[in-house]
Design goal:
- The structure is a single chain.
- By secondary structure, the chain is α+β, with helices and mostly antiparallel strands.
- Helices cover 41% and strands 21% of the residues.
- Strand 12 and strand 13 form a beta hairpin.
């Protein structure tokens, strides 16, 4: 959530910067500033009434000592009127403050200076490409056909048990899932991230804190009786570890990693773009989350991007890194780098990671602060990234490593799988 100070200091700058995200903030900015002016005027009036109450209260004792009981009763009655009026003003101030916050949460995060305008994915910037070229054998198959051929993923069985988008992993397919999760977690902990195992259901406050609510409520699975939400990513529970927390100077930065299943009720289209593992409603993902001082957060972002790139390189996959344009960025992000893998059999790029800096946007919603060198509390910066999301990694691994004799497992995964080929 944007801070009120941002709007007070330079409202037009906020409006202009949000145009990069194709968002018209002017009506909301005007409303927030109007509510802020109203709340401050009410506060001034309330302060004056309180001062008058204190002055009159001091007079009552003196009047009683002088035996002027009737006069004292009149003053008491006046104080009672002022208290009632003060109560009304406080109620109006609370209403204005709530209305102001309700408006502020409707505005997305301001993109950082590196972000260029654009309408969508077609306007994203390619900042780097890497990995080996893929040479497929004749009659190469897409991953959903390979999954069926080697009996490692059963999409039809998933439909029977639950519905489309909930595959069943079998045999070496299940072991490959477990191997990737453990490999990613081991790489992350070796890089200094502390592993946590969070709940996969969160309350409404957690969804609000990281910005999924109210913006993406329709994409989340909701257990209505308990008012819990299935997590769309480990970012939500892990970042909420720090909700309503003030970190001491020696407690920042924070680096955490977690594996969770993820649940997304996304409106899917039809065709090859959503076939097989390309888009699922339940999938596995390992996440990294950081809490940083503002002056350190962009160095931390570069470190996270380099770390995710190292994972892709270890798997020996062809990839590219994109810096998202304003029109393709998430509601909460100030900057996002997407990683995509080349699916040679499908002849298309598959997104497998997003690494983002949210600056103070999430921290303001979370009330996440830290004490600086002078002991003052400041809003922290939060960052997160997929390292990595499994489905499309598996899709690329199966397709790009297929041979006439089977699917070759990358060497770094063999200690985790216990086999070097799927055949």
């Amino acid at each position: 959530m944007l801070t009120l100070k941002m709007l007070r200091d330079d409202p037009q700058a906020v409006v202009e910067k949000l145009k990069i995200k194709n968002f018209d903030a002017q009506p909301i900015v005007d409303k927030v500033l109007e509510l802020d002016a109203r709340r401050r005027a009410l506060q001034t009036e309330s302060d004056a009434l309180l001062a008058e109450q204190k002055q009159l209260a001091a007079e009552i004792g003196g009047l009683m000592k002088q035996g002027l009981k009737d006069k004292a009763e009149q003053v008491k009655a006046k104080v009672a009127e002022l208290k009632a009026r003060s109560g009304e003003l406080i109620e109006k101030m609370d209403t204005a403050a709530k209305d102001m916050e309700s408006s502020l949460v409707l505005m997305p995060n301001i993109p950082c200076s590196l972000i260029k305008p654009g309408k969508g994915a077609e306007d994203n910037e390619i900042v780097k490409m890497g990995g080996p070229e893929v040479n497929l054998p004749e009659n190469a198959l897409p991953h959903w056909e390979l999954a069926k051929k080697y009996d490692i993923i059963d999409f039809d069985l998933g439909v029977k048990i639950t519905g489309a988008g909930f595959p069943v992993y079998k045999g070496k397919g299940a072991k490959l899932q477990r191997a990737l999760i453990n490999f990613f977690l081991d790489c992350n902990t070796a890089a200094g991230y502390k592993e946590v195992e969070p709940p996969v259901m969160v309350n409404k406050e957690s969804g609000f804190g990281t910005g999924q609510l109210p913006d993406k409520e329709g994409q989340m699975y909701h257990a209505e009786v308990d008012d819990f939400y299935m997590v769309p990513t480990a970012e939500v529970p892990v970042t909420n570890i720090f909700r309503d927390v003030i970190l001491a100077a020696d407690e920042i930065p924070q680096r955490l990693t977690a594996y969770t299943p993820c649940f997304r009720r996304e409106a899917g289209s039809y065709g090859k773009d959503v076939r097989g593992l390309n888009r699922l409603h339940q999938f596995d993902k390992v996440e990294i989350v950081r809490v940083e001082k503002p002056e350190d957060s962009y160095k931390a972002l570069d470190d996270m991007v380099a770390h995710v790139e190292s994972l892709v390189n270890k798997l020996g996959l062809k990839y590219r890194i994109l810096r998202l344009c304003g029109g393709d960025m998430s509601f909460t992000s100030a900057i996002t780098y997407d990683f995509e893998l080349w699916s040679a059999a499908q002849q298309r790029w598959l997104e497998i990671s997003s690494v983002s800096n949210f600056e103070t946007y999430q921290a303001n919603r979370l009330h996440l602060r830290y004490r600086d060198a002078e002991g003052k509390t400041q809003l922290a910066h939060t960052l997160n990234g997929s390292s990595l999301a499994l489905p499309r990694v598996v899709a690329a691994l199966l397709e790009d490593n297929q041979t006439p004799d089977g699917i070759i497992i990358p060497e770094v995964l063999r200690p985790y799988t216990g086999f070097d080929k799927i055949d």
